[in-house]
């Protein structure tokens, strides 16, 4: 099929016409169980009535005015995010990569404004993925993603995952911050231990540097807490969020303490579309749903059911599944060497269930947080059929 879209995606040969909850339907009416949620984006399901109504109402009133003026909808969303987190201030933008770029700038500007411009290096970890912009790519350090985009942006120190000794050894007078995903997404659904996250908080406090959490994929209820770092009982100084924040509407945010953001003055950063009324209507509607007292307990219940089902699949298909990874409704099936995750993704699609690949030969499951028991059961039954076919194909 001829396309005028730039060929940056290896797209599956299917297009969807509509969605509802955790189900998608193609033009012929065939239903698919969505265990992917647009790669963790459709947090409250497809076409959630409250989200649809909020965006429709705002679209009839006002879409865009520019950040040259006050935007009450953005003020409301920022206040709500600060009330539920460590943060004092929020910068809204349009994507996770932009949120990471903002976080990097906040950290560097913090020390530059304090008279320490030499403190501009940021520690990151192997397996990280922070986005596709040049700064975010350099922070992630994935050679495959960086190929052809040299020279890479300087200022990042990449360390082995979970190595406390390496972290201590890497801290020099030039280090400004440590950046980490509490649960790595694209890198293979690797969850850092609560102990390691607490160690990072302590070492940052000890050396007077900033801690940045990338909760773009693992935040907004994905792990059963509003933010994954809450499992460890620690907060960062700066946090990047996106994906589930808008429930499908493109929006990201950089949260920070007032102290961490002390260098950010008028003119230091900006976003033409960031915080526009339409995006903020989506954010506030998502927060309405997630702040309901029953929401997160229901996510945790679904996560327990998913965990039990995945354990059964791992036992029944031990010839292809090496192990399980992740937390909450952010899970990965690590396949054995020689069994390609792309094959399972393909077979799952043929069985009309959506999953996707991740690093280290992992198949990623990120269902909508509102998935029903019936939808989850049906999706896992379809995944089982795909695994049966994969096991047969691999002998």
List the secondary-structure elements in sequence, H or E. EEEHHHEHEHHEHEEEHEEEHHEEHEEEH
At the first level of CATH, the class of the domain at 63-290 is Alpha Beta
The percentage helix is 25-40%
CATH fold label of the domain at 63-290: Aspartate Aminotransferase, domain 2
Shape: globular
> Mean pLDDT, as a whole number?
97
What is Rg? 21 Å
Structural summary, described in words:
- 37% of the residues lie in helices and 18% in strands.
- With 395 residues, it is of the alpha/beta class.
- The strands form 4 sheets. A 7-stranded mixed beta sheet has the order 4-12-11-10-7-5-6, sandwiched between helices. Strands 1-2-3-15 form a 4-stranded mixed beta sheet.
- A hairpin with a 3-residue loop joins strand 16 and strand 17 (362-365).
- The longest helix is centred in the last third of the chain and has 22 residues, at 295-316.
- The chain is globular.
- The two termini are 34 Å apart.
Question: Which terms would index this structure?
Answer:
seven-stranded mixed beta sheet; 395 residues; Aspartate Aminotransferase, domain 2; alpha/beta; four-stranded mixed beta sheet; 18% strand
Short description:
The protein is built from 12 helices and 17 strands.
Structural topology:
Blueprint: E1 16-20, E2 23-26, E3 31-34, H1 37-40, H2 49-61, H3 72-83, E4 89-93, H4 96-113, E5 121-125, H5 134-140, H6 143-146, E6 156-159, H7 164-170, E7 175-180, E8 183-184, E9 190-191, H8 194-207, E10 210-214, E11 238-241, E12 252-256, H9 277-290, H10 295-316, E13 321-327, E14 330-335, H11 341-350, E15 353-354, E16 356-358, E17 362-365, H12 373-394
Parallel strand pairs: 3-15, 5-6, 5-7, 7-10, 10-11
Antiparallel strand pairs: 1-2, 2-3, 4-12, 8-9, 11-12, 13-14, 14-17, 16-17
């Amino acid at each position: 099929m001829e396309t005028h879209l730039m060929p940056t995606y290896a797209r599956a040969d299917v297009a969807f016409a509509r969605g509802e909850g955790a189900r998608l339907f193609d033009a012929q009416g065939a239903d698919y169980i969505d265990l992917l949620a647009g790669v963790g984006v459709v947090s409250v399901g497809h076409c959630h009535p409250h989200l649809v109504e909020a965006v429709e109402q705002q679209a009839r009133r006002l879409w865009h005015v520019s950040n040259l003026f006050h935007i009450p909808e953005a003020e409301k969303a920022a206040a709500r995010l600060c009330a539920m987190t460590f943060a004092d201030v929020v910068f809204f933008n349009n994507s996770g990569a932009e949120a990471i770029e903002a976080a990097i700038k906040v950290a560097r500007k913090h020390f530059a404004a304090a008279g320490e411009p030499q403190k501009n290096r940021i520690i990151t970890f192997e397996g990280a993925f922070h986005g596709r912009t040049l700064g975010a790519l350099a922070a992630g350090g994935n050679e495959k993603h960086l190929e052809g985009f040299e020279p890479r942006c300087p200022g990042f120190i990449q360390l082995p995952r979970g190595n406390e000794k390496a972290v201590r050894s890497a801290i020099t007078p030039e280090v400004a911050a440590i950046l980490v995903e509490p649960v790595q997404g694209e890198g293979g659904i690797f969850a850092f231990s609560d102990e390691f996250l607490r160690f990072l908080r302590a070492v940052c406090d000890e050396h007077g540097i900033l801690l940045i959490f990338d909760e773009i994929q693992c935040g907004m209820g994905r792990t059963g807490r509003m933010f994954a770092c809450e499992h460890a009982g620690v907060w960062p100084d700066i946090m990047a969020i996106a994906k589930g924040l808008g429930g499908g509407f493109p929006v990201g945010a950089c949260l920070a303490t007032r102290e961490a953001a002390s260098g950010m003055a008028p003119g230091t950063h900006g976003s033409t579309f960031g915080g526009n009324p339409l995006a903020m209507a989506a954010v506030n509607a998502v927060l309405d749903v997630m702040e309901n007292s029953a929401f997160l307990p229901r996510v945790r219940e679904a996560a327990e059911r998913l965990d039990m089902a995945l354990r059964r699949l791992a036992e029944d298909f031990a010839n292809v599944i090496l192990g399980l990874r992740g937390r909450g409704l952010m899970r990965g099936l690590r396949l054995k060497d020689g069994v390609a995750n792309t094959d399972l993704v393909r077979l799952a699609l043929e069985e009309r269930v959506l999953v996707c690949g991740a690093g280290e030969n992992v198949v990623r499951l990120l269902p909508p947080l509102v998935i029903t028991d019936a939808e989850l059961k049906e999706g896992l039954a379809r995944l089982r059929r795909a695994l049966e076919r994969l096991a047969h194909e691999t002998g």
